[in-house]
Each structure stands twice: as structure tokens, then as C-alpha cells.
Amino acid sequence: MTNQELLAGFLDRSLNEDQLLEFEKRQLDNPEFAQEVREMVTVEHLLTESAPTVRYPLEFLSKVESSVAAQILAGAATGGILGTLAKFGWGWIVGGTTAAVVGGTAIYVAATRSDVVEPDPRPATMSSAPRTTQPPLVEQPQVATPTPSAEPVVTIREASKVDVNVKVSATNSALDQLRADYETCSTTNDRVRCAQIALQIGRTLRQTQRSGEAETYLAAAVNHARAARLAQFEVDALGELGLVYAERGDGQQAAAYFQKAIDRGQSTSVTTTTWSTALEKLHR
Amino acid sequence: MHTLMTDEELFALVRDENDEQAFRSLFKRYDKRLYAYCLRALGSHDDAQDMFQTISLTVYDKRSAFTDGSFAAWLFTIARNYCLKGLRQRKNTTEYMEDIHIAHEEDRHSGDFLLREALHKAIASLPEEFREALELKYFDDLPYEDIAKTLGITLSLAKVRVFRAKKLIQQSLSSIISELQ
Predict the structure, then answer these.
(1) Which residue of A86, A236, B114, B173 has the fewest CB atoms within a 10 Å radius of its CB?
(2) Do B166 and A43 touch (CB under 8 A)?
(3) How much is the pLDDT for A168?
């Protein structure tokens, strides 16, 4: 082994007994090498002791922790119900009182989350960009066949032949829970949790065409997120407001909100692909 | 109960069972290291906070993508990618270094201030690939295996980079160390 190999092994504590003896011998035989070893040991000690002192913003770290924890709790409360249903797929029964299923194929695709955009777990090179990050979204179901005329009734496929109207009640139940959570967090002035819940309520209301209420909650989400410095939530709430206006047919206001979401995202390194795409579609 | 669990076991509970307490335990293991990483990479508390928050939310959003391997390596790979993106988007980097220098103000009265100051200057002047490997080893406390995964290099190359970084620092500090010995 060379002196440098022995030195590297010594610093990493990976030398065996024989190698250690050889290492000692070379230091005795070579004063310059011995001095180099002493200096390297000093550097090693300095590095171990000299991590930059950081004044951690403990309150901020705690807020972020609460924010993600709130998502987990919300996921357990709502994603649990909807997620379970999603595993089986949404179905429509067509035909009013006869409830005849047309070909058994009038199926709505289960609610999809944006995390189908997988992160890149592979190490990046210096020139590579991080993969897209998207807020968790529950998109409206996609129609696989012509729109049915009857009220939507969810069939839990594979589980039973009994049709149950679960979708609406599950959504309302989850919404009620979220509203209760929002009231609770409002009283404790937990802006992080308020932002997260208000955004989720606003998004759900928009998806169920209750745009007036949706706007109120989304505007509240923007304010909470801004106060708590939660850029991701602020961007998402602004974008959702854009969708509210777009669905109302107010293209000008919609574009203004999409642009705000994009600007805020760009200034905070939050990905805004969703809102850029929405803005492009609006201009077409 | 969570104290004895590995990072990967905790994350599995978060991913598969929406276990909030497991998340909090895991978060506390990494929050300061991750924040310090962001601050080192970006140089200002404002940017570090935005980045820390983005990374924290992303890790949760993308939880289904992590199925095996080292959680620390996965976390720091994501952090590195986002910080690199943040740096690319930034037009002027020099104005952002203030917060880190302020952080060292407390060291001014310690006996080895000069040596530490020289050390940090030496680290700052290292070639990027060496500096990054060295900081992951000594400041983020990652084992060589995780450094290799985070940087996308072999284990032996990770060891070589860290060693060469230390050699360059030793050469840079040699005269100061000799005076102090």
C-alpha cells in the first residue's frame, strides 16, 4: 500500500492490525510523512468539530412539521375513505329506476393524485433538474363513455352487487370533517394547518361546483399560506382560484390568478407546471 | 417505540399507514441537517426556509416512490436536486452569503477562530465535486454509501473525493497548523 492509501485507511479507521503496524513504521522512517499525518489528523478533528453554526429557525421548522403532519392526518381522514374506494374504481349506473349498467363499462376512473408524477430518486448530475413537484390533487373523474343521464351512483366493484351511493356521502362527510378541523385551527391560530385545510376544502368545493364557497376558502388559504410563508400552498391556492374563475367563464380573472401562481412559484422555486399549462389552455 | 426503528421503517409507516407520529419522529431526525444543507447550498435563511419547506412537502408527496434503499440518501438526493435548481434560477449568488457569515460571528471569541476561519475558506475554495462530498460526510454526517448514492458515484470514488478534499485542506492549512503545534 502507498503512504496515501495507508493514511486514508487510518483516517477512515479501516486499517487492520498489520496495516496499522506498517503505518506506524512508515511514520518512524519518514518524518515528512509523520508531519503530514499529524496535519491530516488535525484537519480531521477540525472538520468533525467545525460544522457551520446555524441558528435554526425552530418555530419555522415546527410549522413545516405541522404542515406535513396535517397532510398526513388529512390523508388518513379523507384519502383513506376515497383511496379505498379508488382502489375499486368509480362506476356509473345508467337508466333511472331500472339502474341498468350499460355494458358495464360506464366507469369513471378513480380519483387520481398528482403524485403519479414520480420523483426522480436517482442522483442528479450537476446539470440535471429536479423532477416536477405537484400538489396533491384530486382530479375530477374522467369519462370513459358518453356521459350518463342518471344521478351518479357509486358501485364498489368486486365487493358487492349492491349499489350504494357512497361517493357523495363520503365526500360530504370528509368535507364536514375538514370544516370542523378548519374551525378548530382558526381558534388556535395555527396558520399552517389552516392554510392546508382551507386549500383542501376550497379545492373540494370547486370540484363539486360550489364556486362561491370555494373562493372564500381559497382566498383564506392564500392569506394563511402567505402569513405562514408556505409558498407551495400559496401557489396552489392562487392556481385553484384561477380554476374557479375559469369555470365561471371569467377568463380575465382566471388568467390573472394563474399568473400570480406562476410568479409566486418562480420566486420561491415551487414548480408551477400545472398553472402554466392552465394559463396556456386559457389563451387557446 | 419509534426511537428504535430505522429511518426506512419509520418512512414505511408514514407511506403505508399515514402514521403521523412516525413522520414526526423521522422529521426530527433530519430537520436540522436538512435545513443546514439548504442554508449551506443557498446561503440565506429566506431561501433555505423556502427550500426546506418545498423539500419537506415533496418528500411526503412523492412517498410512494421510495420503496427500498437508504432513506437518507433518497432525502439528500431530492434536496440536492432542488437546491441545484434553486441555484440555477438565481441570478446573483454573491449577495446571499450574508447569513452564513453571520452564523459564525459567535465563534469570534473562541481560541481557534483563525483556524476555523481558514478551514471554512479552504473548504469554500475546494473544487465543487470535492467540497460537496466532504460536506455530506462531515456536515451532514452521511456514511460513504449514502454519499455515493446522493452524488450518483461509486463508493470508492466517494471515498477518494473526500480524501482528496481533506488533502487539499491540509495543504492549504499546513502553515497555520504547524504554527499552532
Answers:
(1) B114
(2) yes
(3) 43
